[in-house]
Design brief:
With 419 residues, this protein is α/β, with parallel strands linked by helices. The protein has helices at residues 2-7, 14-17, 43-46, 55-66, 79-93, 109-124, 141-145, 150-154, 178-187, 215-227, 298-311, 316-338, 360-372, 397-416, and strands spanning 22-26, 29-32, 37-40, 101-103, 128-132, 163-166, 196-201, 204-205, 211-212, 231-235, 259-262, 275-278, 345-349, 352-356, 375-376, 378-380, 386-389. A hairpin with a 4-residue loop joins strand 2 and strand 3. Helix 4 packs antiparallel against helix 11 and helix 13 (360-372) crosses helix 14.
Length: 419
Amino acid sequence: MSIFEQLESEVRSYCRGWPVVFDRASGSRIYAEDGRPYLDFFAGAGALNYGHNNPVLKQALIDYLARDGVTHALDMFTAAKRDLLVTLEEKIFAPRELSYRVVFPGPGGTNAVEAALKLARKVTGRKQVVHFTNGFHGMTLGALSATGNSLHRRGAGVPLVHATPMPFDRYFDDSFPYLGYFERLLDDPGSGLDEPAAVIVETVQGEGGINAASAEWLRGLQELCRSHGILVIVDDVQMGCGRTGPFFSFEDAGIEPDLVCLSKSIGGYGLPMALTLIKPELDVWEPGEHNGTFRGVSPAFVTAAEALRVYWSDDELEKSTRAKGERVGIGLQNVVERFPEAGLVAKGRGLARGLEFSGGELAGQVCAAAFERGLLLETSGPGGEVVKLLPPLTLTDAEVDEGLEIIAESVKSALVGGR
């Protein structure tokens, strides 16, 4: 592995916790060069909801490439883009009675966020954006300004402006009137809070520590924003595409955001792709006002459309994700109860789950012990104190049980020692 240390930047991250060279992957497993399999509860940070090298999506991609389908097309009309848009309308928008136009902002989630922030400011004529404690929205400057993590923010090297943090649901304790605080600032002309163009929110904060907002809080937030002419942006980059059960993570709350950011698993196969969904009345862009070279990566359109047809023509995946999520939640709660003195907390929704420790050192030790046992996990939270589980939605019940058993063993190893 010396070539990586010789040539690759020190900014590399995940590979430090998993110091092997991976070579192939299938379903819920990824294999090192020596052939050792690892059960993957990381899933490309949520970019592989349908598993590694999903055979149905792979075949659609191979067929498209074999017939010399267009690979790169900027924002030109292509058959692949048409198929994706038709499938989005038929499988996602129409059944949910949603009306959105689709912006192709670039290849990554931060591109989707940047487009949403820019458009919200253009539509409202306001500069300020409200974001929430422990939120994560991307690494480019606009998205980073709305991100809470101090390590990431320091990396900007310049002041991050026109963004104001507010407490996320249950940031302090259940008695604190979170939205009341926000509402008071909006109503008080002496508060110093300029009228925001938008709020940007994750319904479940992935990088922030698997913090799940309640449906009541999300509905209250939308109502408050509506009353003040503030646009609601839901960042569904990691929690969308079925991660919490329904296709959009906000569906259970019954809200309808003005703008929605999608990436990661929207491409289906792990190929780079992002979408910003906008209410039709917000579509005030001038032609070319927001663009980018890699807006039209057609192979991702192909696998995205195929994933929507295969997995979202009915509610089977949603029901499966909810059921498996409950199994994982119960399994993590069993770990909590097994070690009551450790003060562990099981968190999450659907197949976005977490186990919170007293600090990042313990959580890191659990992930390291899990890796030794053949399971990939990462940490999240402001201090890396949460062991984060994002397995493929297509994993089997047996793989759920296997992963939970390894997690229990790894927690025991970290808390009481031994192997």
